[in-house]
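Ticket #302: bound-state structure for zinc ion.
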Amino acid sequence: MTAGAAGKVVNAMTIDVEDYFHVSVFDGVLPRTQWNTLDSRVSANTARLLQIFDEYEVRATFFVLGWVAERFPELVREIANRGHEVASHGYAHRLIYDQTPAAFREDVHRAKGLLEDACGREVAGYRAPSYSITPRSLWALDILLEEGYRYDSSIFPIRHDRYGISVSERQPYPIERPKGRLIEVPASTARVGPLNLPIAGGGYFRILPYRWTQWGISRVNRLEGRPVVFYLHPWEVDPTQPRIKVGRLGTFRHYRNLHQTESRLRRLLTDFAFGRMDALVAHAREQMVDAGAHALRLPYCW
Ligand SMILES: [Zn+2]
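RESOLUTION: The complex was predicted; output attached.
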């Protein structure tokens, strides 16, 4: 168990740093060629989150889009200078299973270079747009290893219409590939009977009542003695962002309860302890060393 000074489990706070128009739900309605013409709000919204984290003395991991780092390197520097971890969300926010392996390699290589140039630190972590490492894009893990990434947070162990490998592990685990070992740190779920229920972030945090998240994190912290991985986006604390026309489901997923996110986040930061994801990765590596050869047999199958 990872425990804080007060004995609370220290969970991982993670932010996927992208603009409101990068979100995959707009892929079919907003051409990428228009991105440069839109009013960017990512710097202001991320600054808002940085201020909130300072107030609560929380350090987090920011998975920053290379597109953002290219335009706003000072934002990436500021994230690092305030004691947070900078990680990669790829360059162009393309779903992995819609790309060729060569295009994916170019995307993650470009993002890592831009981020490291901006913050002057090594970038070890990666999270795919919309958790798009699925059974049809597992080749991406080898490319991440070859490009110098050391952990990944892209395999969501749930059933969903666009992502997820429902039978994958729920807690950090090693993935052995021909190219080496990657630590996978999945977004968190609560195990209820045969089901993995998403409990820790994004649309689930905004759309469902706060009590759902509170229940889920308490359950994992208390019953399993383990930390959760929570995730959020800067645009989720921006209720006045420009409205993009998209279908009913997309509108519901993107715009529902935006005005409540900040107050919910403040409540969350009061109720639970949070830190950076690389602390979870280091803890997972220690456990693997302690477990010796057994670690190599940890299940990774579907
Ligand atoms: Zn994203």
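RESOLUTION NOTES: The mean pLDDT is 89.
TICKET STATUS: resolved
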